[in-house]
Amino acid sequence: MQGSRVVHQGRAGFFHRLVFAAAGVGAAFWGMAAHAQAVPPGFDQQAAFNRLLLSPTMQTFIATNVNALENPVLKAECPSLKVLEANRYDIVQRPVFEQNGQSVGLKSGVWVSMVKVERCGQPTMRRLLIKYEPDQKRFQAIPLLPGDFRGNLQLEVDARRIVIPGVMALAKCSDGKQVFALDVRSGGPSTAEGWSESWRLQTCGRKATVTVLYRKVGDGMDITGKDIKVE
């Protein structure tokens, strides 16, 4: 089960997925300069990250890009998402800041942002993998499974690899670019021993559902897809 963090405004910041339209925008906002050096002793990296992610500029990027990365099937059903809450995150690679002249800029960092949104009047979740690209001085964002997925990034990668080929085979779909995740719903409480989810997909134009089971085995998690139904 994922051990995400929640950060509250006023005490710390929160994490969200962002995409900068141009490298110049990223460079200007993050204060990246030609000659970077280590931050002073005692510099609070976590607090700096929180402040950046709570800034009004960053919040605008968050709201814009949650919509920009919505897959076309979901967007056709509901054209826009409204961000309700964005204070949960799961660190993949710890964000690191460095001194750039008179300012401090982000050097590196990768995280998953969990965003509560309103979609056509109903609350749901969106998750995005965010990576800072220092060479381009901008962020790269990748949309992850929509809905109530309970695992971390590695578990999602493994679950997709195990579940989606089986659904594609039953749907007689051979084009991975025509597979879209539409929703993930929890099958009950999540515990350290495991949990279940229901995935809703579209594969080559056909809607499908599959039950995904997670069961702790040793230090890992066994993943099983069953009860595949294709319309």
| Structural Rg | 19 Å
Number of domains: 2
Shape: globular
Sheet-strand content, in percent, reads 35-45%
Number of helices: 5
What percent of residues adopt helix (DSSP H or I)?
10-25%
Structural class: alpha+beta
The count of strands amounts to 10
Distance between termini? Answer: 31 Å
What is the element string, with H for helices and E for strands? EHEHHHEEEEHEEEE
Most strands sheet: 6 strands, antiparallel
Q: Which blocks of ≥5 consecutive residues have pLDDT under 50?
A: 6-35
Mean pLDDT: 83
Polypeptide structure, described:
The chain is of the alpha+beta class and 231 residues long. The protein has 2 domains: 5-143, no CATH class; 153-230, Nuclear Transport Factor 2, Chain: A (Roll), CATH 3.10.450. It has 5 helices and 10 strands, in the order E-H-E-H-H-H-E-E-E-E-H-E-E-E-E. It has helices at 23-30, 45-54, 56-68, 72-77, 153-170, and strands at residues 5-6, 36-37, 81-100, 103-119, 122-133, 138-143, 179-186, 194-203, 206-217, 220-230. Strands 1, 2, 3, 4, 5 and 6 form a 6-stranded antiparallel sheet that branches. The radius of gyration is 19 Å and the shape is globular. The two termini are 31 Å apart. The relative contact order is 0.14.
